TrEMBL record:
Protein name as annotated: Corrinoid adenosyltransferase
Binding partners and assembly: Homotrimer.
EC annotation from Swiss-Prot or TrEMBL: 2.5.1.17
Classification via SUPFAM superfamilies: Cobalamin adenosyltransferase-like (SSF89028)
């Protein structure tokens, strides 16, 4: 099967229902979501299934949801329906709460790292933040954008933070605190961060 089409050789790509430039804000946004998905896939290869079966289940669902997000953003047909709903956002919130309850108490910012899986989850988290920033820009310049995708990305970055901490704690690796950090978490990290 030939995977190249040569249709993008002049700097354009296909959306569902139109063609656009490859550097268009919409394409940049769902391309960054694809980056997140790739880093999540890498993290999954670094998690021991005997210890992290719940995280692997979460991450597999998230990979599918990220494809849904990208599909929704690439669909510009006038009569379109979206795959993403509020339910995955609510599931992420529940899992964030559960993982933060499990993770060690936290008062200060932590440096990305620890186990290979935790480090990769931190990379996925920061790329998710970039995708969310691009999403916010996209919502300013285009109408009829599925705003649930922005909410999902916002929760996903928090989930990946919580998952990275559990990826370390379950194998007895301590998080490395940022030494000049003030106390920025209330209740030992069990509550919402002081600064978003």
């Amino acid at each position: 099967m030939r995977i190249y089409t040569r249709t993008g050789d002049k700097g354009q790509t296909s959306l569902v229902g139109a063609r656009t430039d490859k550097d268009a804000p919409r394409v940049e946004t769902y391309g960054t979501i694809d980056e997140v998905n790739s880093f999540i896939g890498k993290a999954m290869t670094e998690l021991d299934s005997a210890i992290f079966s719940d995280l692997l289940t979460d991450l597999e669902a998230i990979q599918n949801e990220l494809f849904d997000c990208g599909g929704d953003l690439s669909n510009v047909k006038p009569s379109r329906t979206y795959k993403m709903s509020e339910e995955p956002v609510e599931v992420l919130e529940k899992r964030i709460d559960e993982l933060m309850e499990e993770a060690p108490l936290l008062e200060r910012f932590i440096l990305p790292g620890g186990s290979p899986a935790a480090a990769t989850l931190h990379i996925a988290r920061t790329v998710t933040r970039r995708a969310e920033r691009l999403m916010v820009t996209l919502m300013k310049v285009e109408e009829d954008i599925p705003t649930v995708v922005q909410r999902y990305l916002n929760r996903l970055s928090d989930y990946l933070f919580a998952a990275s901490r559990v990826a370390n704690s379950r194998i007895n690796i301590r998080d490395n605190e940022y030494v000049r950090s003030a106390k920025v978490f209330r209740n030992g990290g069990r509550a919402k961060k002081v600064e978003e």
